[in-house]
Write a structure and sequence with these properties.
Length: 270
């Protein structure tokens, strides 16, 4: 309810709800419903049944004041005398240098996180499309190989690989020489994530009936869009992204081991 801002005689009176841009005083003995002051100061010496709100102004609460609701001060200061009766909470937000800096930093962090999530989402959608479009045969072979592979083994392999990477990275952080190796681990993780996302996106796209007659890159794009949309759901998306990382690590490590085995067999035949 917008605010009573008129000065009444000192006798017992009840103010109607009014709106004004000036300093406002509720004298002793006067009762009002709400006090809302914008661009001015509010001095409360009487009774306020609900709340007192001051925007870009100060609130002065005298010892004779009785306020049943909350006091909200935005862009100003609160001065309260001893003996004042305030029944509920007091919220004061002062736009000093520290507050402004905090708001700027907080807004920058929110915008930065939003921009990072948007960029990451676009990359996760574009990567499967590019991998299917560029390397059709190789990508199709990888998808066919891991479409029906035991998911439990892949997740377990990814989990232990992640633990190993984490332990090694902690040890390498203690030495300057270990930083390039950590960067190599990060590069391997990114490549693994691209491979795992492509496999999952391709399989998801195949489940969509309307996409059955679409090209492979289109099916991968549809699956990637569904995957990324789900990962943007709070909490559930975080768990899904963690599962995607473990699955991707499991697939990549399995591929790496299979590649080394095939090379060793070919070398032994020679």
């Amino acid at each position: 309810m917008f605010i009573s801002l008129l000065i009444f005689p000192f006798s017992e009176t009840h103010a109607a709800s009014l709106f004004d841009h000036q300093d406002t005083t509720v004298p002793p003995g006067q009762s009002v419903v709400d006090v809302v002051v914008i661009g001015g100061d509010a001095t409360i010496a009487g009774n306020v049944k609900n709340s007192v709100v001051a925007i870009n102004g100060d609130v002065n609460v005298r010892s004779t004041a009785h306020i049943d609701g909350v006091i909200v001060v935005i862009g100003g200061h609160l001065h309260q005398e001893e003996g004042a009766d305030v029944a509920k909470d007091i919220v004061s937000i002062s736009f000093d240098n520290a507050t402004v800096n905090s708001l700027i930093i907080g807004s920058g962090l929110i915008l930065g996180i939003g921009a990072f999530k948007l960029a990451a989402s676009l990359i996760l959608i574009i990567l499967p499309i590019l991998m299917v479009a560029i390397g059709k045969r190789k990508t199709a072979a990888v998808v066919d190989r891991y479409r029906n592979a035991p998911r439990g083994k892949l997740f377990a392999l990814g989990f232990f690989t992640a633990l190993l990477f984490f332990a090694v990275c902690v040890l390498l952080l203690l030495t300057i020489v270990g930083i390039p190796i950590i960067l190599l681990f990060a590069l391997f993780l990114l490549i693994a994530l691209a491979i795992g996302t492509t496999v999952v996106s391709h399989v998801l796209g195949e489940q969509i009936r309307r996409a059955a007659d679409k090209p492979e890159w289109a099916r991968a794009g549809i699956g990637a869009f569904i995957l990324v949309s789900t990962m943007n759901i709070p909490f559930i998306g975080m768990l899904l992204f963690l599962a995607l990382i473990l699955f991707s690590l499991g697939v990549s490590v399995s591929m790496t081991v299979a590649l080394f085995r095939s090379r060793s067999k070919n070398g032994s035949k020679r």
